[in-house]
Specification:
About 25% of the residues lie in helices and about 25% in strands. By secondary structure, the chain is an alpha/beta fold. The protein has a 7-stranded parallel beta sheet with strand order 7-11-6-1-4-5-12, sandwiched between helices. A hairpin with a 4-residue loop joins strand 9 and strand 10. Helix 5 runs parallel beside helix 8. The radius of gyration is 21 Å and the shape is globular. The structure holds flavin-adenine dinucleotide. The site of flavin-adenine dinucleotide (FAD) has 28 residues, from helix 6, helix 7, strand 16 and helix 8. It comes from Pseudoneobacillus rhizosphaerae.
Amino acid sequence: MARKVLVLGEVRDGSLRNVSFEAVAAGKAVSEGGEVVGVLIGESVNTLAQELIQFGADRVVTVENEKVASYTSDGFSQSLLAVLEAEKAEGLILGHTALGKDLAPKLAAKLQAGLVSDATAIEVAGGNVVFTRPIYSGKAFEKKIFTDSFIFATVRPNNIGVLEKDESRTGNVSSISVDVKDLRTVIKEVVRKATEGVDLSEAKVVVAGGRGVKSEDGFEPLKELASVLGGAVGASRGACDAEYCDYSLQIGQTGKVVTPDLYIACGISGAIQHLAGMSNSKVIVAINKDPEANIFKVADYGIVGDLFEVVPMLTEEFKKLKV
Ligand code: FAD
């Protein structure tokens, strides 16, 4: 059944996050040949509309308002509900990011709609749009369909994939004015933690360190490897608790969930809570001194050895490949 689907483009530091393009691809699948309408909320966001179209949106609706220049759940939910109402859309897709995790349940409650959160795959089978999502910390997957006509989902970054960018694609960009009011929170200032390099949640390569790195300085070889591979550095909670790195790097049940193409675990034992955040990575390489370490059970490639010897060797070899 062809339907009109709205997809929220998520803007960070003036650019669209990659998960926005995955959401467009998801919207395309959910629309079943209908229309995919990108939505951009913020200040001066219309300059980004063309990029959403090039990645597959048919057209874009913007809500330009200084009151939504920074994300608040009140401001964004009012804006998105206004667009849904104006467009009479039958579906909505957001990224399963910090923003999406905050916004989607609130919208679902307001719309009295069902929500499939954290979808990792979408297919159309037997006349239904079927969503796959991990459960029990990624140890199993469930498939869900909507019995209602309205389809609402958040998609996990790095799983759905993006459609091929077509720079010749064009589409209409319109704006609607929303009377954003009664905000219960107002963002006065955004102070970013100084994070270097690639965004961990969306990185294609993650080099993660555990308590085995032994100190803050012990992360240096991992940072170098990540930089050579164009990836991001992550960590186990063990490393965060030991104050070797910031908690923003923590991967796992109580940290970030990542699904990169390549995950290199260095000096991480592989506790179940850590696996919950990375076991769905496409290729897992584990480096650990202990051949019995649990991480080897989920690893595609295991290297038994001292990470301070192995990681620099890998860095040197990857550098050679780049020349
Ligand atoms: P360790 O278990 O101490 O492992 C260190 C590993 O490094 C060992 O396997 C050792 O053989 C290896 N090693 C040491 N030196 C070297 C070397 N030179 N070269 C190579 N290998 C070396 N953990 C998370 O990661 N993420 C979470 O989100 C999370 N949430 C949790 C939530 C709850 C409610 C609880 C109870 C726990 C949670 N944990 C989480 C903690 C988790 O149980 C583990 O304690 C933690 O993951 C262990 O971190 P680690 O593997 O770095 O440390």
